[in-house]
Amino acid sequence: MADRLIELREITKSYGNVYALGGVNLSVDKGEVVGLLGDNGAGKSTLIKILAGAVRPTSGDILVRGKPVTNWNAGRSRESGIETVFQDRALAVQQSIVRNIFMGNEKGNRFGFLDLKKEVSEASRLMREIGFTSRVFTPNSIVGQLSGGERQGVAIARAIYKQADLIILDEPTTALSLTETNKVFHFVRQVRASGRSILFIGHNIHHVYDIADRFVVLDRGKVALEVSKADMKSAEDLIRFMEHVAHPELTEKPKEKNKSSRSKGAA
Ligand SMILES: Nc1ncnc2c1ncn2[C@@H]1O[C@H](COP(=O)(O)OP(=O)(O)OP(=O)(O)O)[C@@H](O)[C@H]1O
Ligand SMILES: [Mg+2]
Questions:
Q1: Separation of 225 CA from ligand 2 center, angstroms?
Q2: What pLDDT, on the 0 to 100 scale, is given for residue 166?
Q3: CA distances for 187 relative to 24, 133, 154, 174, angstroms
Q4: Domains assigned to the chain
Q5: To test ligand 1's pocket by mutation, which of 17, 21, 36, 45 has the most ligand atoms within 8 angstroms of CB?
Q6: β-bridge pairing 4-15 and 59-64
C-alpha cells in the first residue's frame, strides 16, 4: 500500500436532517497533492473542518498513518501534523514575516526571553525551503507589503514551522492573478518535494488541474469522482468527467487514458 498519511472512512455530518456529508472516503498519501473540487454547498469546508478537528463528524472513522484515532479534536489534528491555511484570516498584516511565522510559538533563549536572532534565521531558512526567494523582502518585512501569493507563502512557511505533514489550503488562489497563482504553485511544489502533502481546495478547475496529482470531486456531500492526473489528458478532460458525473444522461462517458485508474463514480 502507498504511504498513507490520512484516511477518512464513511464520514457523515448532519445538521439536523440535512446531510452536509453523506459517507465520504478520502485519503491523502505522503508527498501527494490532492485537489478537492465541488460546487457551493458540496461539503468541502465541512470536510476540512472535520480534518482540522473543528467539527465533529456524525459518524465515520479517521485513520492517521494507518491507525484509527479516537476523540479526534483540534489538538489531536495538530499533533497529527495537520495544519489548515484559511484564506484571509491567516495573517497579521501589520506585523513582520518573522512575527507571523512564530506567532503563538515564539522561540525563547535559555533565559526564557524571545530570541529574535534565532527566529529571523529560522524564518529565512523556512522561506528558502518553500522557494520564497526575494531580493526585496527579508524576514523583517511587513506582511502588508507582500503580494497575495507571497502572503500565502508566509502562511505555508508557518505551517511547516508547526511541523505540518499535511497542509490544507482553502481556496488559496481564488483572489489571485495568474502571476500570484504561479507563486503559490511554486511553494506547493517545494512543499511536495520535501515529502509533505497538500490538500488543495479550489473552484477554478484549471488551477486545481495544474497543481494536483489526484482529484476528488464532491457533489452534495458525496464523492462523485476520484481520478488521478495520470488518467487525464488535460483540464478539459477533467471538466468532461465532471460534466458526465453531473449529467450522465446528457453526456458521453469520457475515455480514460489507461486502465490502472483509481477513478470511480463515472461508471
Ligand atoms: N453549521 C451549519 N449548520 C447547518 N448547515 C450547514 C452548516 N455548515 C454547513 N452546512 C450545510 O452543509 C452543506 C455543505 O456546506 P459546506 O460549507 O461544507 O460547502 P462548501 O463545499 O464548502 O461550499 P462553498 O464552496 O460555498 O464554500 C451546505 O448545504 C451548508 O448549508
Ligand atoms: Mg466552503
A1: 18
A2: 98
A3: 29, 11, 10, 16
A4: 4-90+165-246 (3.40.50.300)
A5: 45
A6: antiparallel
